Amino acid sequence: MRHFLDFEKPIAELEGKIDELRRMSEPEGLNIEDEVSKLTEKADRQLRATYAKLTPWQKTQVARHPDRPKALAYIAGLITDYIPLAGDRAFADDAAVQGGLGRFRGRSVVVIGTERGNDTETRVAHNFGMARPEGYRKARRLIELAGRFGLPILTFVDTAGAFPGVDAEARGQAEAIARSIEACIDAPVPLIAAIIGEGGSGGAIALAAGDAVLMLEHAIYSVISPEGCASILWRDAAQASAAAEALHLTAEDLHRLHLVDQVIAEPIGGAHRDPEAAIQAVGEAVQAALEPLLGVEGPALKARRRERFLQMTREPIG
Predict the structure, then answer these.
(1) Domain that holds residue 116
(2) Whole-model pTM?
(3) Which residues contact 164 (CB under 8 A, 6 or more apart)?
């Protein structure tokens, strides 16, 4: 069954009526196509109107939609001959960070993604996309591997943030994130990052310090979650909606502030309504961003990337 968000209730009611009419017509042989067509048009108009004016909090809900395609879906849809590589060669493998070698439209690449999982079993297995230090050390290993072999790097980011547990802190979570960011900045090959769902704090930027940062239309990217921000500022997580507004975490806001390079349009109603179309749209945007960088020498790439992020600290935000 399709999962509807709270603000989608009018759409859910219309689509429920359409399904009910279709079920009723099958055994009776009734001709209800005209009625179904009218309801379908009305539901489509309602869907377009709703998604044309989403609030930041509603976009947060869409970014976290359980049916939204995850990193492994993008890898499966865009990368051929994919060979996953595991482990950080120091402690363990972290299932929250997936990565390996493959081909993107015929070109050999290294691909890395934060995977949240699609159901209870896979979410637990991937720790809900929240990586521990070994996950970021694995990412760093893959980035350095790409540099040695001259392979472009593609990253797909979808995480609420790095895992905040005591065990992660004990194994050097902050240092691992910092080293992963450093590896991104110092990579002598093109690095294209795509924010496909939730981009949370350092856990996201650890894989997103690239030459180009792309962001899906209903994705979010922020230093802290709205709930976390509300708990700090108002000591009330129920103020998450107000916090989402204040954080400027939407793709539109971040593009306006020059923190992301491109906003990728999603299918009407969000990526979860047509995952294949969303995945292909991301593929087209990644290809367009990657092509101009393929002929740039490593030192020039590193210098441009470093300057790009330093410039963000010089420009007024507002």
Answers:
(1) 60-314
(2) 0.92
(3) 130
What CATH number did the domain enclosing 310 receive? Answer: 3.90.226.10
Q: How many domains does the chain have?
A: 2
Q: Tokens 């240092």 identify what position?
A: 175
Q: What is the full per-residue pLDDT of the chain (318 aa) written as tens digits?
A: 678 898 999 898 888 888 877 777 665 555 677 777 888 888 899 999 999 999 999 999 999 999 999 999 999 999 999 999 999 999 999 999 999 999 999 999 999 999 999 999 999 999 999 999 999 999 999 999 999 999 999 999 999 999 999 999 999 999 999 999 999 999 999 999 999 999 998 999 999 999 999 999 999 999 999 999 999 999 998 899 999 999 999 999 999 999 999 999 999 999 999 999 999 999 999 999 999 999 899 999 999 999 998 888 776 555
CB 79, CB 103: distance < 8 Å: yes
Contacts of 229 (CB under 8 A, 6+ apart): 240, 243, 246, 247
Residues 231 and 168 in one domain: yes
Q: Is residue 41 part of a domain?
A: yes
